[in-house]
Amino acid sequence: MKLGLWGVVAGAGVGAALLAASGAIAQAPAATGGEAVFSARCKACHDPAVERAPNRAALAAYRPEQIVDALTNGVMKPMSAGMTDADKQAVAAFLTAGSQQTARRGGPTGPIGVDQKCAANPPIRETGSDWASVGLEASHRHQRNSGLKAGEAAKLKVKWAFALPGGGMPTVVGDWLFTTNRNGRFYALDSKTGCVRWMVEGVGSRTTPQVAKSSISPSGWAIYEGERNRTVRAFDAETGKELWRSPVLEANPVAGITGAPLVVGGQVFVPLTSGEEGAGRQPNYPCCSFRGSLAALDAATGKLQWQTHVINEPLMPIRKSASGAQLQGPAGGAIWSAPTADPKRGLVYVTTGDSYTDAPTKGADAVVAMDMKTGQIRWSNQVTERDNFIMGCNEANKAANCPTPVGPDFDFGASPILFHLASGKDILLAGQKSGEVYGIDPDKGTTLWSRKVGSGSALGGVEWGMAADDKRLYVAIADTINAADEIMRPKGAPVWDVPLGPAKSGLYALDPATGNVIWSAPAPKAPCHYAGERAGDLTKGECVRAQSAAPSVAGGLVFSGTMDGWLRAYDATTGKIAWAYSTTAQTYDTTNGIKGQPGGNIDGLGPAIAGGMVYVQSGWQGAARTGGNTVNVLLAFSPDGK
């Protein structure tokens, strides 16, 4: 591997972003003290930014208390050893001086906008066209009633746009839309106009909110959100008033929640992940102890019912690093994505990330089934052994904590899909960053078939998700590093030390019963312009056609975005493109007061489709920051923009 942005990407997910719960801190002057601390302790990674670290402009979008909490309790704790409380407050004040500013177009900072409140907030009324959870039924991402009439998809135009730092995929119920973002603001918007119904501060999250009917909420509707600080909170969906807050679900300070919690039958299933892959590259870090787990909470109270770790082998000392740190393992198995429920069998399924150490484990790179009531593991199917990975490690560069050998980083970042076959049987479908797609027996956990669709890489293969209707499985293939290396290697600047397999970026339709490819649609070469401050990452401004975002299905069309900022609708039967829109071809005047907000890559959890409209984030919400903006734009499409 080549040490650089892509050679050190952790799993599918979080890396070293400074996301944490807010908490009050004393005001500290933005003085030379903070600048000195930043220069000595932070600048090497953040100015200019390397790998997935946020740059100066991105850090300026956070509140000071978020940065302090990340340094004290969160993902940056291992890197802040020796810093005093005064140091942390000073550097936070320095970074956020003139806060509520952020970079756009790689240039001067500007305001992130002023919320425009709705004149009235009617009650939430469900329709047959809602998108109330991240994956809808059994993670299919299939909207059965899109609200779009035949031929209307070809007329989709932007109706409104809303700017926010690093927002996640929204959910929609009736005229209400809910979305989180990385600066801690949790929004309820009018889904038709983009005005703000309510906003709650201090909800540091990148996960998709789930909306559900609930008697615990005065309005009859509750919304559940997983936070980066390892807690879950429930709110009244009509007012934003907090209903309960769970206990901290993981003691490891670099752990967090990136997969959306799933509410089923009075339980909330919460996946736990970590940034220990990044922390582990620090030479004095006692790598590693985190183990991915699934927690079940009481949906009415937030009380913990059970928590099951996917790695069962005992934690044991391995050796001491060259710096004298005690290394331990096995560790890893982070659960990056939302779980999938199977009430008929009483099971909940998760997919897991790679191993962090060279201590053997069967819990990493696996598909796992747990009993919904007890958390007992019914079966676990590890599809890739010894995928041991720490950021910054490769065979040519063995840092203090690197496992031996270094694995390919082929973990799972996508939720499994439970599919009902025409034969009457069920099958569980899982896609891996290796480019492999698996069909698994949900009763026994045995692999029924596997199909190599993408070439795979650390940011390759199936990254964020797949989709399915009643006939086909739709697989978006990223192969991001492969595509980037193909661009840069002829220019004498390869992003990998050895050539990878050819980039197979695109959308593929598979037969769920056999894995046979029905049709393939390679990502088209199309005009693109990166305008954000990460435009120069990896390919020096050239756009990457990786198809890493999760697709969504509605009305016989598959909506799928690419990292060069295009959103397309494919005919589900043939794979032909029925509609295409470049989110980077223009800028947007947003409903919250940003003039000329640019778009960027489309990554992460893809589009939500509800009530005759399509919603997608453009800018950055995934793992690959190339083409990303500090401020994203949430785009709402409707026929003719009406």
Structural class: mainly beta
Portion in helices: under 10%
Query: What oligomeric state best describes the polypeptide chains here?
Result: single chain
Q: Extract low-pLDDT stretches.
A: 1-31, 99-111
What's the β-strand tally?
40
The spatial strand order of the largest sheet comes to: 3-32-33-34-35
Distance between the termini: 49 Å
- The CATH class of the domain at 32-99, by name, is Mainly Alpha
CATH topology of the domain at 32-99: Cytochrome Bc1 Complex, Chain D, domain 2
CATH superfamily of the domain at 32-99: Cytochrome c-like domain
**Based on CA inertia axes, which overall geometry fits?**
globular
Radius of gyration, CA atoms, in whole angstroms: 22 Å
What's the quick description here?
By secondary structure, the chain is mainly β. The model is unreliable at 1-31 and 99-111 (pLDDT under 50).
What does this protein structure show overall?
This protein is mainly beta. It has a domain of 68 residues: Cytochrome Bc1 Complex, Chain D, domain 2 (Orthogonal Bundle), CATH 1.10.760.10. It has 7 helices and 40 strands. The strands form 11 sheets. Strands 3-32-33-34-35 form a 5-stranded mixed sheet, with no helix packed on it. Strands 13, 14, 15, 16 and 17 form a 5-stranded antiparallel sheet that branches. A hairpin with a 4-residue loop joins strand 20 and strand 21. Helix 1 crosses helix 5 and helix 4 runs antiparallel to helix 5. The longest helix is centred in the first third of the chain and has 11 residues. The protein is globular and about 65 Å long. The termini are far apart.
